[in-house]
Amino acid sequence: MKLKNRLSLAVTVVSAATLLTSFLTVYVLVRRDETRDLDLALAAQAHALAQIADAKNPGRPAVLDGVAEVPESLRPTQRYIAVYDERGALLSATMNFASEVPSFESLGASTALPTEGVPVDLDVNGKALRGVTVPVGNGGAALLYAASRRTVDDDASFLHRTLGVLFLSATVATALFSRWLGGRLAGDVHAIARVAREVERGNLEARVGGGAHGSAETRALAADLDHMIEHLGALVAAQRLFVSHAAHELRSPLSTLRGELQLALRRPRDAAGYQRTIEEALVDVEALSRLSEDLLALARVQAPHSQGSDVMAVGDIVADALRLARGPAEARRVSLEQAPETTSTNGPLLVRGDRGEIIRALRNLVDNAVAHGPAESPVLTTITRRDASVEIAVIDRGPGVAKEDEPHIFEPFYRGTRDRGDDRPGAGLGLAIARGIARSLGGDVWLDVAHQSGARFVLSLPAITDADA
């Protein structure tokens, strides 16, 4: 069954059941209260008449025709009276009973009547009556006092018709409204499902937009779906760009390597010549190996994975990273300096994670500073505790990052304007890998744009205390 029909049926059935229960309760209570008021009025009049009749003729009371006072009746109501002796035999009755005086047994009363009387419904000469049987005197006689219950029946009939019309109207209105509401909700579901099918077919430009307007929840769901599709499109675009850049970066050394090997095969040479060819090819192979390792590292940090739980001192990590970066630094006669830790706590600063990954992230920043700073200039590394984080800053004295490059330097394969102009080696993956590692540990890497006279990159990691360790 469709959502629209199922929702309409469910709401209509529940509403109809609730209305029917409520209306039946109201009908029963109103009829009961009016009947009780009529019984009280009849009982009062019956007791008064019983006292008068017993006083006039003790032991054999007589009755007279007259009118009764019925609640809510605007005109005199004929009263019906019958008197029975202690054995239930009829003693006297009003003329309006004619030949249809009810027997004492039909009244549902016993010879020992309660003081308040016993109410009973009667049908005399085609008229619906309401009566009450009360005791007369102390001799065991009984008096039946009855009057038309037309006021009660008329009110009940009016209430029955009114509630019936209200029930039908409310049920129809509820069915129409629930069907309309179900149609709006189902329309939202269809719109969202249609966009989902479009995305499944590869159309990442599909959006729900204003197609969902049935409820706040479906509008929020549509907005979330649009946001997810937009994010998915960005991821797919980034993946395609990544593959394109990776293929481009791999093609250059592969083409060079292939050309060198083809040339070596076409032109015979001596052992020294072949050795030079092999050495040149080995340089390209090493470049390919480094690029492959960087690609694997970037893919690893971008994919969800569990991090190590090693606890280590930040100073030791910085020392290891500087030691590994000493080779490229000595080649450019760059000195690597480490400033003392700046902390308000006793003992070394501690972080948690994979030691090798953190060292790789920090070394990428140091290698970047060595490569972009001027030769024979120092690269300074500082360690600072800031709130709940440890900040490791790498500072060089180079020209800094160009303004137009600042928004893009952490994108994979992005190379700054100066790098492209100088034709420096590298695929532009170092900063992307460093940021990926930091974020996987709950930290981050950023460029301090306020720093002057060089570039200052900051690696931030969550700090832990001795108690946490």
How would you sum up this structure, described in words?
The chain is of the alpha+beta class and 469 residues long. It has three domains: 3-157, Beta-Lactamase (2-Layer Sandwich), CATH 3.30.450; 216-302, Helix Hairpins; 310-464, Histidine kinase-like ATPase, C-terminal domain (Heat Shock Protein 90), CATH 3.30.565.10. The chain is 51% helix and 17% strand. The protein has helices spanning 3-56, 150-200, 216-266, 271-302, 314-324, 326-331, 355-372, 417-422, 430-440, and strands spanning 67-68, 77-84, 90-93, 118-124, 127-136, 141-148, 310-313, 336-338, 350-353, 379-386, 389-395, 444-447, 456-464. Strands 7, 8, 9, 10, 11, 12 and 13 form a seven-stranded mixed β-sheet that branches. Helix 2 runs parallel beside helix 3. The radius of gyration is 50 Å and the shape is rod-shaped. The mean pLDDT is 83. This is histidine kinase. It holds the Pfam family HATPase_c. Its EC number is 2.7.13.3. Residues 245-465 form the Histidine kinase domain. GO terms for molecular function: phosphorelay sensor kinase activity.
